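Lab notebook: predicted structure, single chain.

Context: the supervisor wants predicted structures on file for every construct in the current expression panel, including those that have not yet been purified. This is the next one on the list. No modifications to the sequence; it matches the entry in the shared construct table.
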Amino acid sequence: MYTATSGALVAQSAVDTIANNLANANTAGFKQKLLQVQAQPQTELYRIQTDPGRSPGARLDGVPVMVPIGTLGSGSEIYDTPSDFQQGSISATGNDLDVALSGPGFFATQAGDGTRAYTRDGSFQRDANGYLVASNGDRVLGANGAAIQLPDTGKVGIARDGTVTVTQQGTGQDNTPQVVGQLQLVEFANTNALRPQGDSRFIDTGNAQPAAATRTTALQGSVETSNANVVSSMVGLISNERWFDMNIQMIQAQDTTTGQAIQSIGRSTPT
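Prediction complete. Output recorded below exactly as produced.
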């Protein structure tokens, strides 16, 4: 019964994980979560008995005998829920403030409380103070660690290395692009140390080993779509729901059997 219960709990967690992936199938920069499952510790079973003696009728002390029968599993449990950082598709938007990343890098952002996070969601905006901000309002950091502030007017250009320029347009304007900053693009040696916070943000838990990006290219006017696969997620959702139902049926069968045994033993007459 406990084995089936642990299986049902894992199946329920799998359904919740897949459902969250499906809910974010249209979220820019979203990375689907995976569910890693492992077996719970196994128990070694032995048949223990006492050998009455080596010779028939001899008054010898009994010899303990322990014969191995095998192992008994105790169910399954969740090992980890890492994110899948596989590259999502690049979708062109034509918006000058949208930036997609081709490669393993991340944008660096900073919340109002100073918390630093990393994201692949490049659907940026200009806030009321002219700062370049992510979709959740966090300020986008430049290569120097400071937030990038844009002038009130001008056409924004973002180069493949993340350099941000603004060109003033119109008669009598200086049409020379002016550099206002460079996006801080970060790559990690250990992405397993990144943990999701929200839909598309990740926090370094302390061992992600960030470094300046060398294999990542910024693509202006595009965004990276979610890497959640709708078809495989639907198949996984159905499979895990069936797995959950089978474990529930096993629990009910064990409960029925136990109830019948209790009733039968309680009513039996000693002979």
